Amino acid sequence: RLRFQVSAALREGRVTPTELCQRCLSLIKSTKFLNAYITVAEEAALKQADESEKRYRRGQPLSVLDGIPVAVKDNFNTAGIETTCASNMLKGYISPYNATVVQKLLDWGAVLLGKTNLDEFAMGSGSTDGVFGPVRNPWSYSRQYKEKSVPKFHSEDTEANWVITGGSSGGSAAAVSSFTCFAALGSDTGGSTRNPAAHCGVVGLKPTYGLISRHGLIPLVNSMDVPGILTRCVDDAAVVLGSLAGHDPKDSTTIQDNFKPFELPNLTDVSKLSIGIPKEYHAPGLSSEILSLWSKAADLFKNAGAKVIEVSLPHTCYSIVCYHVLCTAEVASNMARFDGLEYGHRSDMNKSTESMYAATRREGFNDVVRGRILSGNYFLLKQNYENYFVKAQKVRRLIANDFVKVFRSGVDLLLTPTTLSDAVPYMEFIKEDNRTRSTQDDILTQAANMAGLPAINVPTALSERGLPVGLQFIGRAFQEKQLLTVAKWFEKQVKFPVIQLEEVKRHDHGVFQHQKSASFS
Amino acid sequence: QKVRAEVLEHLEHLALVDFRDSEGVERLQRAIQFADQLHEVNTDGVEPMDSVLEDRCLYLREDDVTEGNCTKELLKNAREKVEEYFVAPPGIVLLIK
Fold this sequence. Notes:
Shape of chain A: globular
Oligomer: heterodimer
Strand order of the largest sheet of chain A: 1-3-2-4-6-5-10-11-9-7-8
Radius of gyration of chain A: 22 Å
Number of helices of chain A: 19
Order of helices and strands of chain B: HHHEE
Order of helices and strands of chain A: HHEHEHEHHHEHEEHEHEHHHHEHHHEEHH
Strand order of the largest sheet of chain B: 1-2
Number of helices of chain B: 3
Largest interface: A-B, 68 and 57 residues
Number of strands of chain B: 2
Structural class of chain B: mainly alpha
Largest sheet of chain B: 2 strands, antiparallel
Helix content of chain B: 25-40%
CATH class of the domain at 5-273 and 455-514 in chain A: Alpha Beta
Strand content of chain A: 5-15%
């Protein structure tokens, strides 16, 4: 199911874009219980597929992506298609424009199937806190997971035992993982692409800050947000990266350097590589399973001739606290635009402008969002600005400098775990509140956003529970080619298993009904 | 130290978002407590970092109008409008609790 294979098949006429599109749409329908999609743009997708087909018949495909079904996280603006950010604040909001990355995908001929589910406004690490309900990890329905469950349970038990996708780009990760699309866009501010990628057993790439345009990505933290790429293999991620990267005049935070798309070489000799193992990433709560996997991976590189050394990023333990302050502060600012006046939800309250704004925001935002806005405003108060916001900006520099020092010492890449454990069951996940969860889960991914560095999750192995575990590589700024080349080599070595999705069609109706009530409880 | 009531009220006014209940206030308390860990770090002589791209020049373009004329498109998403105006309730009156 590699895209290269599919692209070849399209070029040779062995499958048509329309057939491909229809297959994906049909699969989306039969996996509806995953709740990965908020909006499916069936008509538009079929139309794009038809146009792609015409191009292939003329022998003039626009690119390798022509006719390839993709999905986009619902915090990217898509012209004519609802963009909700999984929030009541934007329910019914039809974007008047395409985000630059969406436009690029369409310009290259990709077929946009729909918008994927997320935590409300991308705040969260479970994809459980959106108004359309939680996303279910496809691996919950895999033979691999069911076989490992003790005691052997029946299909009804899946209701209680399904595991989360991680977040906040859970819908995109689930969509790619369940084969309903070949690539999906997510966003990554603290790990939101890499975390669900790890839990769903897919490749999740966070590009260097400034490489890919954020124009049209509804912002969370302007100084850290990046569009993320989710695919089933590293080569595919490189192809998508190649179609999206480059300066965008509409996003002044994109660098002006000329970007040249690249094909990944098949690395055979890693003896010239220096891999750093940051000791602080042996974080509290890291499962022994993942620790062992991480160690095995380091050995893999060592045995292949690479130099593997322990390094230190001393301020790692402060990255979450730092993020907490900077994120809430930027969120407080970014969420100010939602006032009901120009777009989105508007309250019926009309006693005064301010009371209308306040009521609109009370009705439109969930607790998580409101909580972050209030915290952010607190840290930005005149009396707190120096002690919290500016202090956090200083700590940010220390965190970024840690990476600079390590890369300057000759290390090419860092190898770390992506998550603390495999995916937890939904029932267990919701016992802790969103901020606690995010705090725990972001610890291994967040620092890369602080420093703006590229990072990638590569699915590595299955846990004892039969669920995916991934490892993360962090690279130097704008050195995506090196990062992806090594990631591809690693991917080849570990041979991560293909998900064996059980036949779930017969569960469709019962599960869907049940899921509906569970979503609105 | 607990956050004073005037500060809570001030925050609700600035944010135009309410705490709703004691849980909301507790959430803020915990957030502050969490953030206080920052003060363990010695940042003497360290400059605040605004952007990871601080060593680069920001892209500036010519101050020419290149797009626009999409009034109709933009007004489509607004609930209350009159001709080409977004309509708000009277503004001078402050937030009424």
